[in-house]
């Protein structure tokens, strides 16, 4: 049976990771360590028969895709729909700063994103409606091939929930470390099988959340 393989990657460590800021669509760069994480993945993937590299159009994903693309001699393609979850007016802020600026949202928790959202932001349902069709389109375009996508913790989680048939309420039960690798096989009969979850050479078990 024909199989299309997805190498799904989270971007490398970001420059404000230690501040626990909600980046979302906020465009931040990766650190030297983050670039090193992408280099390690590029070496791991260099012998794989990958035919195309895609990424979110945010800087932290684009830079990772460029590093991997160079190793594979492929030019990455930016896909706007693969941006991270839009965190609305909390973007660029820490929780403490957001609550101080918007005290009416002091009780909000991202654990409830399946049913609620920050003003101006997206819910997990809306993220899923944006991301999953875009990924499915990419997979159909490369039917029977292997491709790589460099995206974000939130984006990867909704793709993995879809692949495993999990309700979106399980979103935060799936860890996605900086520079992690997931492998998903898409079968022609519609079945999706997760072969690797939050793995690869950079796994450090650090708490990285949605930053």
Structural domain count: 1
Rg over CA atoms, rounded to whole Å, is 16 Å
Shape: globular
Number of helices: 5
Helical content stands at 25-40%
Task: Give the spatial strand order of the biggest sheet.
Answer: 3-2-4-1-5-6
What is the CATH domain class?
Alpha Beta
- In CATH, the topology is named Rossmann fold
Helix and strand sequence: EHEHEHHEHEE
Question: CATH superfamily, called what?
Answer: Phosphoglycerate mutase-like
Task: Report the end-to-end length measured between terminal Cα atoms.
Answer: 39 Å
Describe it.
The chain contains five helices and six strands. It is α/β, with parallel strands linked by helices and 211 residues long. The chain has one domain (3-199): Phosphoglycerate mutase-like (Rossmann fold, 3-Layer(aba) Sandwich), CATH 3.40.50.1240. A six-stranded mixed β-sheet has the order 3-2-4-1-5-6. Strand 5 and strand 6 (192-199) form a beta hairpin. It is globular. It starts with a strand and ends in a 12-residue tail after the last strand.
């Amino acid at each position: 049976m024909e199989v299309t393989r997805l190498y799904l990657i989270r971007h490398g460590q970001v420059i404000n990771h230690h501040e626990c800021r909600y980046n979302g669509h906020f465009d931040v760069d990766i650190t030297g360590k983050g670039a090193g994480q992408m280099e390690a993945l590029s070496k791991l993937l260099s012998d794989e028969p990958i035919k195309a590299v895609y990424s979110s159009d945010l800087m932290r994903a684009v830079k990772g895709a460029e590093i991997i693309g160079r190793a594979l001699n492929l030019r990455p393609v930016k896909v706007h729909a693969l941006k991270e979850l839009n965190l609305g007016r909390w973007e660029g802020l820490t929780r403490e700063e957001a609550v101080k600026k918007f005290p009416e949202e002091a009780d909000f928790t991202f654990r409830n994103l399946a049913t609620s959202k920050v003003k101006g932001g997206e819910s997990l349902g809306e993220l899923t409606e944006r991301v999953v069709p875009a990924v499915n389109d990419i997979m159909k375009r490369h039917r029977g091939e292997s491709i790589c996508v460099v995206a974000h913790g939130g984006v990867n989680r909704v793709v993995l929930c879809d692949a495993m048939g999990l309700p979106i309420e399980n979103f935060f039960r799936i860890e996605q470390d900086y520079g992690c690798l997931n492998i998903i096989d898409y079968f022609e009969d519609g079945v999706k099988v997760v072969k690797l979850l939050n793995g690869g050479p950079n796994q450090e078990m650090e708490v990285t959340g949605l930053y």
